Amino acid sequence: MRPIAVFLALAGLLVSSSAALALGVPDGGVLDFAILRNGEAIGRHVLRFKARDRDIDVRVEASVDFRLGFIPLYRFDHRAHEVWRDGALVRLSATTQDNGDDFRIEVRPNGAGLTLSINGATAPIGAKIIPASLWNIALIKQNRILDPDDGEIMSVATADIGGETIKIRGREVATRHYVMTGDFKRDLWYDRDGVLMRVRFKGDDGSEILYQLR
């Protein structure tokens, strides 16, 4: 390979790596969270990332099986596939079974914008939207986000609480703590590279739900 070709290839790798890092893609390409309810494990939320050229491919799997003894009280299953190009969402496919309610969500390009489909019903949503899959730290700058579970467009505001050191996998990690309010309420912690470290929120019954990295 000629020297200029080597340089261009390396430059391309650096750009791809920088873009991935800016979006919060972790080393190793996997974020694996245990879902805890009042400290008890009830599910798992896993994100798998693959960066190639200008694209970042994200696969999301989340499941909850909350029981009282042998009696199922709440079941949730979510599968999603996100495709990002140059920092913008270009495609999203998601299926969700939420305690008996089923949703199929699609986001596709439509000219200069995007089209959202919820169980086959479609509507334009503009050129830019970020789903509330939470891994992309650009979420904190948005006032409208997409719920990938049911397709709702939610109004939010996010406050920067400041730096906070938390324990992840037995070690101290410096993070930035943000609080999202509005239609979607979450406490979010990202590390210095913008990688999601922890999520906390209140369940519908007032219980504390925590996403803790495994």
Summed up, the helix count is 1
Mean pLDDT, to the nearest integer, reads 90
Q: Say how many strands there are.
A: 14
Q: Tell me the count of domains.
A: 1
The fraction of residues assigned to DSSP E strands is: over 45%
Which regions are unreliable across 5 or more consecutive residues at pLDDT < 50? 1-22
What overall form do the CA principal axes indicate? globular
Explain what this protein looks like in three dimensions.
This protein is mostly beta strands and 214 residues long. The protein has a single domain (3-213), classed as outer membrane lipoprotein receptor (LolB), chain A (Clam), CATH 2.50.20. 9% of the residues lie in helices and 62% in strands. The chain is built from one helix and 14 strands. Strands 8-7-6-5-4-3-2-1-14-13-12-11-10-9 form a 14-stranded antiparallel β-sheet. Strand 3 and strand 4 (71-85) form a beta hairpin. The radius of gyration is 18 Å and the shape is globular. The protein starts with a helix and ends with a strand. Mean pLDDT is 90; it is low at 1-22.
